[in-house]
Amino acid sequence: MKSLAFLVSLAALVALPALAQVTLQTGLEQLDWDPVRRGALLLVAPNTLLLTGKTPLPPPRNGYGLPELVGYFEQQVVRFPTLTTAGPTLITELRVPDRVEDLQQDLYRTRLPHAFLASLSPSQMQQAAGAQGIGYAELSDARQRALWEKLFPTNLDFRGSNAVPPAMAAGQTPWYGKQSLPVLAVGTQRTFRIRLRCDLTLLAQPGNYSVSLSEPPSGFVQVALRTLPVSPDKLSEYQRAQAKGTSGTGKVLYRRPPSDLDLSQERFAVPLSLADAKTVGDVVQRAAKALRLELYADARLASQPVFIRIAPGQSVSAADALNAILRASATTVRRLQAGQSVAFVITHDRVPLGNTSVTLFDGILPQEMGKMQEQMSDDKAQKLALGKLRQAKLLTTLPRAAGAGVSETVWQAALEGKDAKFSLTELPGDVKGKIEAAWSARQGRPGPNGVPPPAAPQSALPKLRVNVQVLCPSLGEAQLSVLTLSDLTPQPEIPLVKLPETIKTRGLRVRSPKTQEEAKQLLAMCRARGVTVLYVALSGDANDDRGMSLLSAEKDTLPLVPTLSPLMPAPTDTPRERDISVTGRTASEMAQGRPALSAIAQIMPFIVPLFEQITHLDALTPEAVPVDRFAERVARLAALPGVTQIGLHDLAALGYVGASDRGLETLWTGGYSASERLAFLRTHGIDPSDFLEVNGFPNTGEFALPFFTNSEQNTSLYAAWNERRKARAVQLRKRLEAAFQTARISKPLMQMDGGFVMMGNQQWKSWKGVAGPLNISYWEALTRLGPGGDGDSLDETSTIRKWLAQRLERKAASSEENSFPEFAALPPAGFVYDLSDVPLAQALVLLEAIIAPKN
Description:
By secondary structure, the chain is α/β, with parallel strands linked by helices. It has 28 helices and 27 strands.
């Protein structure tokens, strides 16, 4: 109904297009305002203020009075000693959105019955297979009762009774659906019973439509169930959130925000001429010059027009002019300081918008992650339960729901999962009649996308499923859900993967060993598993270089490739400038101080090492990298016996060139030092911390701040900011190239492309300008794959083995691989599997559990 009302209101707006075009600028043509008697008048962006209400702008009697006119546009008159303006009555307030849909999902969540069925003992399973089924009272422990509470979906079609459902909550109506369904009181589901049957389903051919042989009783009534017990407090919380709406913004009465510039001081009361000023920027530039103050208006605000009425030769106070702009645009003044250099900018708030978006994101994400964690926990329980049900061969133990007249040959074909088709003449007359009746019901209505109805059925393909029936004493019977035969078919064991010797380069990347014994174990494991190149991930710690010396001392023939980043500071470094984000924090400070990351780590533990590598890296700014010292370190590593190449990675922190491909910009982006922000403000008239597109708020489209929305101007300014950071990264690369040439590095250098980190796909390529062979075309971080989603295995190593085997066996590129070159079909020139995001000892255990010995 709400959707219908919205369409009706929208149609009304379309029918009256003139109303949508009336702005304050239109009414100003008939404004009655004498600047000689009443003083100067300054209005900001009147062309953007739209008429409110459903009626046209009333015609004036003898010209509009200012309070009357601006009142039609939700503005109010504000007077200063030498100047009058109008400002908004209501302003936009950013806040954490009320997640009505998520709260609703929490109240109404559909569960599959796998975990509950797997919790039943043999005697309970036998009872569930009986005529009366099993009920809440027969459950033996708290875990089974908890699973029962989560078992039922939102809507169930109870068949067998048209009676009004019992135990209805008085006066309650559904909160979610399009139909007026009755709502059962909390706890009613405890009166239900569950009964299990083996159901035979026939897929009619042609058409492939399903016909179940289970005959439901006649008549039905649809009942809405709450899947979780809902307390009155929970209901009130939902209703309050529903009343507020889901936007990330809210309207509140205007209140003057705090400012970093006190305009009440006497020194700001200097005379200022507004003659011929066309924009906000014109007024602010004149005031800044008169006050000898470095002051800017945000470029998006500065470009807005102003309406001015002033008498010839009339001047105003510079403080009043600035106060009028602040009040009319609901903005304030922010101070930016870098060293001894100070500037001020008129913008939406003292706190940068990017910083606010991070705060909002941190307010939302723990809630979202908590719900996701619960869902993932449920999914894991379902998968474990599915394995248990497979082993128990559940389908063979349950009574048959219907189809007693069907031959045993048909039942066995379905039980064995054979794709055996049976002619309709081989089936009992009543079964054949069901299939033909289903076909007749499909005649006269086209299928999906206008496909004609299927031809008359000639045969049927039998399939089995577990039918979970819900029994209610007064409502009859409902079908909860089904488990298909394919769900319950045991999956084959995934063997260890043997690396094919037809692929010349078979690389492994791990952390640096700490002892000689670890170095020996690592080399022995590589030889036994057919690894042909060993990549060693080095940090800024010189002890990692000692690990390379330990490997080199073994005098093994296995090629060694140390990999390192110039942005990683050494622990013994004197303090240098660390890169900071829009919040003014380094990556490690951000990781320690943001609850959002803790929430992500709890729900997705397999990407914790990724956070350790990226978000816990206090990257140096490009200008602070000691390129000469780094080149000397690279030269020392290159001189070690056994080292064949040097791999360089992370030549720019997140937020610089190529960072948009790496997937973590919503968590941390660099480049926001005070000096860079101030420099960009001076060249482009905007503090880059005020961009909406960056730093972690996922629904920036919900922001509706005047003058600061995601407009074309906003996009072009953001592109200029990105170009500035890119230029800084390019300059670092040039410095590195010069330092490498001076250091006379003896081995080839390679650079890692910035592939999508969350998926682990990265590639090495030759460093431009430094000669060297390249034989790597694919890179995969194995431990970032995470548990598989198909339910075949809960063992992470089995998941990795399955994925790796499929990758090695692939012959032709899919459409996805044609779109993304890093997914190119194997066999490639070579590949590297990355285990460097876990300790070396754990990496060796994983390697032994994934890769088969070569002999």
